[in-house]
């Protein structure tokens, strides 16, 4: 836990409604203390595993894969590089086109649709020991398999089956003491792809 200190601010000043600066110090203190404060749900997500052709070097295969997908205008996220493959998530609306252009380029592509990304948001995620265990346990209790995971300074993202989202929300809210107002539905922007 962080302690926010402000030079020359007493507790009386920090609680006084007449001073905006001490109030800000109190807000910062609260923000850092509260831990997980939101869940974001992103629906209609797909996942792909793309294996490299045997003849290509790994570096060339990765570069060609990304160039192929970029030329098709398909945005990717949750990208993971592996020894002989790349995995990524994308909008479900783009899955067929992505598989088509990658197979045409000589890649072996396995896909899965009907997924959702559940994102757990906390102001100081990297300082919360055991947060991934809590998330994984909650998703396990919800019967959700994690297909991919990612993180940032204030989030952990987990790709799960879309039909497990209600149970996942229920378990995560229970574990992190959240009410329904902490849940935010998001949507991927979908645009027409070039031919």
From TrEMBL:
E.C. no: 2.7.2.4
GO biological process assignments: homoserine biosynthetic process; lysine biosynthetic process via diaminopimelate
Reactions it catalyzes: L-aspartate + ATP = 4-phospho-L-aspartate + ADP
A GO molecular function held by the record: aspartate kinase activity
Domain of life: Bacteria
Gene Ontology terms: cellular component: cytosol
Keywords: ATP-binding, Kinase, Nucleotide-binding, Transferase
Pfam families cross-referenced by the UniProt entry: ACT_7
Boundaries of every CASTOR ACT domain copy: 112-173
Main EC class the enzyme belongs to: transferase
InterPro entries reported for this sequence: ACT-like_dom_sf, CASTOR_ACT_dom
Region ranges (Disordered): 1-25
Statement: the UniProt record of this protein carries the keyword Manganese: no
Keyword Kinase tagged: yes
Biased composition, class Polar residues, residue ranges: 12-22
Family from the record: Belongs to the aspartokinase family.
Name of the protein in its database record: aspartate kinase
Species annotation: Chthonomonas calidirosea (strain DSM 23976 / ICMP 18418 / T49)
